[in-house]
Amino acid sequence: MASNASLARAARRTSARPVVSAADTLRRKALEKLTLAIAKAVESASDETLADIVGSHDLRHALVVAPRDIAPEAPADLEALKAARERTGQFREDIAKRAGGMFDRSHVAEMLGVSAAAIDKQRQRKQILGVPYGAEIRYPAAQFGDGEVLPSLKVVLEGFADMNPWEQLMMLTTPLEGFGSHPETIFQTLAKRPDTIVVKRLAGLAASWTA
């Protein structure tokens, strides 16, 4: 029969072992599976998809778009994917037209008299809006006026928080009532150099759209 001392030593050894719960095991396996899925998605991703992921401020959006270039298993899925891409492309073309076209980074840098690196920093600081466009980031023309960024644009962009840049642009180019004698976009309102009260209203609207 084991002595009390040997039983105590066995108990100590048992209690020293880390306890792995079923939830921890499931979480680890899920992480392994997701890591493989993300690696496959990135390997299959087009330049446009990669740019969309890199330009996204919302991790959930990045996860949604990451697998869209993985070859579907069924012909019906392939047709659905093709149709979705066509709708996305048409949507972006329409929004780009509403925004007065798109400038590339070098054009914006020259217009504002700064370096290309400075443009990247301004975008990251929400001073200007950049959207994924093909394999690069483009800048909506309507956010500039007389060679400058529209006044108070940063306040509105900060209100959008981490909303997808294309969704931000859609909101910025949608005519709204209550800011003029006729419906006008946020870009148009900002171009009139509104007072602080109006700017706060616009920022509040932007924040409400992210809820």
Detailed description of the structure:
By secondary structure, the chain is mainly alpha-helical. The protein has a domain of 113 residues. It is 61% helix and 7% strand. It has 11 helices and 5 strands. The strands form 2 sheets. A 3-stranded antiparallel beta sheet has the order 1-3-2. A two-stranded antiparallel ribbon has the order 4-5. α3 runs antiparallel to α4, α6 packs across α7 and α8 packs parallel to α11. The protein is elongated and about 55 Å long. About 2% of the residues have low confidence.
Structural class: mainly alpha
Mean pLDDT: 83
Low-confidence stretches: 14-18
Round the Cα radius of gyration to an integer and report it: 25 Å
Per DSSP E runs of 2 or more residues, the count of β-strands stands at: 5
Overall helicity? 55-70%
Q: Could you give the order of the helices and strands?
A: HHHHHEHHEEEEHHHH
Give the count of helical stretches.
11
How large a portion of the residues is in β-strands, by DSSP E? 5-15%
Main sheet: strands, sense, barrel: 3 strands, antiparallel
Distance between the termini: 67 Å
Taken from the alpha-carbon principal axes, the silhouette is elongated
Looking at how many chains there are and whether they match, the oligomeric state comes to single chain
The strand line-up of the biggest sheet is 1-3-2
